[in-house]
Amino acid sequence: MFKSKMLIVALLVLFCIIGASARSCVSVVPQTGQTECWDEDGKVIDCEGTGQDGDLQRGLPWPNPRFTDNDDGTVTDNLTQLIWLKNANCFGKRTWSEALNDCNTLADGDCGLTDGSVAGDWRLPNVRELNSLIHYGVYYPALPDTAGTGQWSENNPFTGVQVLDYWSGTTPATCAWAMATCAAAIRTTPSTCGPCAAAIDNLII
Question: Is 176 among the domain residues?
Answer without folding.
Answer: yes
